[in-house]
Specification:
Length: 179
C-alpha cells in the first residue's frame, strides 16, 4: 500500500533562511514531504517541491487537510499569506514572529473579516516552548508542535500575555501555592 507522506509547507521570503534550512532538514528526517514557497530561498537542504517564482500564487497550491503550513515571511506579507491560508482547511498553521507581530497580524485578519475560528487556530509565536535559542532548536520546537498536532497531543505554548501575568499563572500552578 502506497501511503502519501504528510506535508510541511514552508512559506518564506529569504529573511529566515537559516531557520528555513533547519526546518527542511528536520522535517525530512521526520519523514514529512517538504514544500518550500519562497521567492529567494537560500537553503542547503533540498525540499521535495520548491516554488521560487516571486509572483507565485499561494492560493493555486493544492493544500490538503493534513498539511502543516508554517508562515516564515516575517513581514508585511504575513496577513496576506494568512488570509489566503484561511481559505483552506489545514491541520496546522504556525506563524513566526514576536508577540507584538502576532497581535498585529491577527488583528489585521480580524479587521479583514477572516473567520475567527481560523484566526484563533493560528499557532503564534510558532513552536513549543522548549526554551529554544538557536535556529536548529527553534526548528525543533516548531516541528515538535507540528508532530504533537499530528497526533492530537497538547504542547506547552508560548503565551501572548505579558511575562508578569504568565509568571502569576505559573506560580498558581505550582504545588503548595496558596491559590
Amino acid at each position: 500500500m502506497n501511503q502519501t507522506k504528510e506535508r510541511v509547507v514552508l512559506i518564506g521570503e529569504g529573511a529566515t533562511r537559516d531557520l528555513e534550512d533547519a526546518l527542511v532538514r528536520l522535517a525530512k528526517i521526520l519523514d514529512f514531504e517538504v514544500v518550500v514557497m519562497d521567492h529567494s530561498p537560500m537553503i542547503g537542504a533540498q525540499p521535495d517541491q520548491l516554488f521560487a517564482a516571486p509572483d507565485y500564487d499561494i492560493a493555486s497550491f493544492k493544500f490538503l487537510e493534513s498539511d502543516s503550513a508554517i508562515v516564515l515571511t516575517h513581514s508585511e506579507r504575513d496577513a496576506d499569506v494568512l488570509q489566503t491560508l484561511s481559505g483552506f482547511k489545514l491541520r496546522y498553521v504556525g506563524l513566526l514572529g514576536d508577540r507584538q507581530r502576532i497581535r498585529d497580524d491577527t488583528g489585521a485578519l480580524r479587521a479583514r473579516g477572516v473567520d475567527e475560528k481560523f484566526v484563533s487556530s493560528i499557532k503564534g509565536p510558532v513552536g513549543a516552548d522548549i526554551g529554544a535559542r538557536t535556529m536548529p532548536e527553534i526548528a525543533l520546537s516548531i516541528m515538535a508542535e507540528v508532530v504533537a498536532t499530528k497526533y492530537g497531543k497538547p504542547v506547552i505554548r508560548k503565551d501572548l500575555r505579558p511575562a508578569d501575568d504568565q509568571l502569576q499563572v505559573e506560580n498558581r500552578l505550582q504545588p503548595g501555592s496558596s491559590d
